[in-house]
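Reply to dn_fold:

You asked what the input looked like. This is it:
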Amino acid sequence: MFGPGGPTLRELAVQALSSVEHGYDLLAPKFDHTPFRTPDDVLDAVAGALAPLGPFTDGLDLCCGTGAGIRPLARLCQGSVTGLDFSAGMLDVARHRVRPAAPPRVAWVRGDARALPFTAAFDLVVSFGAFGHFLPAELPALFAGVRSALRPGGRFAFPVFAPPRPTQPGYWLLWGFDTVMRVRNALWRPPFVMYYRALRPGAVLGELERAGFAVETRVLPGFGRLAGGGPRGRLVVARTAGAPGPAGHTAAGRVNS
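and this is what came back:
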């Protein structure tokens, strides 16, 4: 499934009937051959949008998976980069596939994003495609932990994309996926939390502000425009107190939700 090297339908079924952690342990060797891995053009666009705000000293890739986000993060950070994930299988793949030949230093930490084991350790935290694994009620603790892990003036950044409209096939694909997952979780334990439509960008930004962040968004060029003229992709940049706001502040309410 998903082409050469990807998981079979049976392997995906076994994964989906596992816990989130064990499911990703099983998927890890083939994860980079699935659509779940963040595309390089998104990683590069995020790095390009963050570059004017740096350089940074130490960075964290939250829910790093097999480490795809470490490469662009390393271009932004001069001291160290850390990948955190709760799947030992994903981290094992990351350790073998990501071997920088030069600084910054790279470290891998197994941990839960909802209970980060860091205090004032980073200037930059990024995350790619992880929010579908968190229920709305978990966001306050998640964002409070990120805020604690950042130094004064540190930034938490992640891309968001406008959801497809009901007139587009992608809308019904995501709706169907989420429906199947909700039925599965109603009938089977442990739950496998992976909902593509549960978290709206506007709600996420509101929770960031309640967690004490100053929030702005930046356009990610190269991903086209919506029918109404707005950008299809944006970068959310949430900043802790202790540094002046960057030029070109964009109101959070302008993100498509």
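Residues 61 and 83 are 5 Å apart (CA to CA).
Hope that clears it up.
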